Amino acid sequence: MPQFLDTAEPGFEAAFRALLAAKREDAPDVDATVAGIIADVRARGDAAVIELTSRYDGLDLTPETLAFSAAEIDAACEQVLAEDRAALELAAERIRAYHSRQLPEDARWTDATGASLGWRWTAVSAAGLYVPGGLASYPSSVLMNAIPARVAGVEHLVICAPTPGGVANPLVLLAARLAGVDRIYRIGGAQAVAAMAYGTETIAPVDKITGPGNAYVAAAKRRVFGKVGIDMIAGPSEILVIADRDNDPDWIALDLLSQAEHDQSAQSILITDDAAFGRAVADAVERRLLTLERRDIAAASWRDFGAIIQVRDLDEAVTLSDRIAPEHLELCVAEAEALALRIRHAGAIFIGAWTPEAIGDYVGGPNHVLPTARSARFSSGLSVMDFLKRTTLASMTPEALRAIGPAAERLAISESLEAHGLSVRARLDRLNEG
Amino acid sequence: MPQFLDTAEPGFEAAFRALLAAKREDAPDVDATVAGIIADVRARGDAAVIELTSRYDGLDLTPETLAFSAAEIDAACEQVLAEDRAALELAAERIRAYHSRQLPEDARWTDATGASLGWRWTAVSAAGLYVPGGLASYPSSVLMNAIPARVAGVEHLVICAPTPGGVANPLVLLAARLAGVDRIYRIGGAQAVAAMAYGTETIAPVDKITGPGNAYVAAAKRRVFGKVGIDMIAGPSEILVIADRDNDPDWIALDLLSQAEHDQSAQSILITDDAAFGRAVADAVERRLLTLERRDIAAASWRDFGAIIQVRDLDEAVTLSDRIAPEHLELCVAEAEALALRIRHAGAIFIGAWTPEAIGDYVGGPNHVLPTARSARFSSGLSVMDFLKRTTLASMTPEALRAIGPAAERLAISESLEAHGLSVRARLDRLNEG
């Protein structure tokens, strides 16, 4: 059973704070190991990557077989059932359509002084996407990471996906092909991150690395940050559902369980203004847990981190939701659109009972890589912007420099940066001569 | 004297690679000290901050005097010369005008299935800006950090600025007032970063911390990243000037020196297609170094990291510039606008000889907080976007769910996430009943 909280109870604030502060993940400290792996890959390149892949994945590679060949990818794609392929294609198309709208515009204008100002967006040249092996090898994540990169205009896009024992997920290879990935390396762990950041004889270095991974991958991403760009370091998944009594408790139970089944550190919270509805959802969760394939994981998550919070009204729900700053927020209430407008901190909002969060994981269109652990207070989900950067532009005319140069010179002097001031003064003097 | 390189020489590629790889900064490892300071501030709040400020800044504070009072700020602002105030006001106005154009638009649309999709931008609620004490206490940086936050709509904006021995820079206080900062705390170092990230009895926690600082501040920002958002960890400043023979060598020398004078780890590079012009600039630098106030710093930077690169033509200059991915790029060539369009990786471009980089440091309008150390390959300068985050929106109609739900269910099953699939299936079944 999850925690039951009630805002009308005197102990609520303390209990809610404890819920917010709950440490759901105890990542092992693998930093020293990872530092050694990165140093090894930097020093020995392919040889280190091959040796580490043999040790950790039980897979013996050569420089020639580090990447899947086109024939291998063809063969894997042919194994995919037509129905699965159609589903992936629909997802790819919808994700592409959504993200294409994110392309920002360049700007350039001339102000009253005659100065021309603006900015220009350009794509990162090369990006690398990490795809975990084993159970968490999700083809949907390949689409969610690779398509925004392609839409942004990234020229060289590679994947590293470990294949322990040599077993690859055909759907991952098909998703990579649909997304237009250039190369797929069958390597993983910190060695894959190091190879993408620093390059080896066979693997060209990239400028940005995204994608989820285990503690080794996360530690490696933190370490190479600065040498290359990285996306966020994702924590366990979360959902907050705000639902009124006019919902089917079973639907809401399944929505809560669709986060809980990810990971026993995942968190599912229901906020409702109806106590009886809250209990009905709790009962529905228990019923579903009897048969769910991943019931052990889901039950542990629901027991340890799940919560049902009873509020007096939906105003309270909005306030609590913004304090939680959930990764996923489902609004299953009568005036869901109006409520959505009042929410300030959330990675993604799913509006209305016909929009289960799982739609957003696959085919909705928006990205499913979203800020966890309350970081929606200050960060956004993955987007085309993560693969773009902006160069600012400024061009002065002599007249513009005459208008604003003296202020720059003055500020330079006040900051004791004489050469800054002189670089402006030398030009102003020329104008005054002329 | 700086290095002279020539793309026509056989050793060029190796020398250029060495220039790119030069390690200009040896940050001391203060991570353990910083971890201790953060833990102390989390445990003891104000008491720890006050004790550390007494120890490191020689300044004895109480909870009541942690922040400057309005009267203290008034008094400081009155000390500022009218000419300095006017220059700061002009800078603030131009920075505000430029950044106001960066506000992104929300989007919402309905696709062919009837699904309503979109996103909404919201501001970070509270932001904290670190302003170094001593020599690097730049009022211009206060404007460059605080104004984008205010333009974004940040509600609560604070500054931490150490005042060793109690000495404050009146221009910093005036800049903070002009930018609309709410509170200015006279604390610094890792203790200030910890106080902003975790809060104390007196200091409310913020969601995002930006601004430059020393090794302690940088280490603290890395450590609190995740709990709060941070901007980039800036390295020493850099400029690349691409100039042809039709320039005054003295102007270009001053532009190179205006980076070199920042820091002996700064880097100034000239690329020119005219060897004689390159030598003339080198001579002009030497002449200016005879009298420059900060000649010791500038001379060390120019000697250790400066370079003059001779190219055969401007095509080569573009290629080399993109490999350098400079923080600041000045284009002093005949067809500067056309050349700017060909540049892909640069933090900021200053187009034409009437646009010295120093204009951009103060009054141009674009931000002067820019990606260093080749990170313009994957990141952008500070902007309004750094204080905003995007929430994605999705709302399905029953018809939309009927159209795309089966694909989501299919993909969920292929990823062994049964509850995901069931959450969609339960709704589809209802539709089929109806």
Automatic annotation (TrEMBL), chains A, B:
Catalysed conversion reaction: L-histidinol + 2 NAD(+) + H2O = L-histidine + 2 NADH + 3 H(+)
Pathway in which the depicted protein is active: Amino-acid biosynthesis; L-histidine biosynthesis; L-histidine from 5-phospho-alpha-D-ribose 1-diphosphate: step 9/9
Active site per the UniProt annotation: 327-328
Binding sites annotated in the UniProt record for substrate: 237, 259, 262, 328, 361, 415, 420
Pfam families: Histidinol_dh
Cofactor(s) listed in the protein's UniProt record: Zn(2+)
Keywords, comma-separated and alphabetical: Amino-acid biosynthesis, Histidine biosynthesis, Metal-binding, NAD, Oxidoreductase, Zinc
Similarity annotation: Belongs to the histidinol dehydrogenase family.
HAMAP family listed in its UniProt record: HisD
Entry function: Catalyzes the sequential NAD-dependent oxidations of L-histidinol to L-histidinaldehyde and then to L-histidine.
Protein's name according to its UniProt entry: Histidinol dehydrogenase
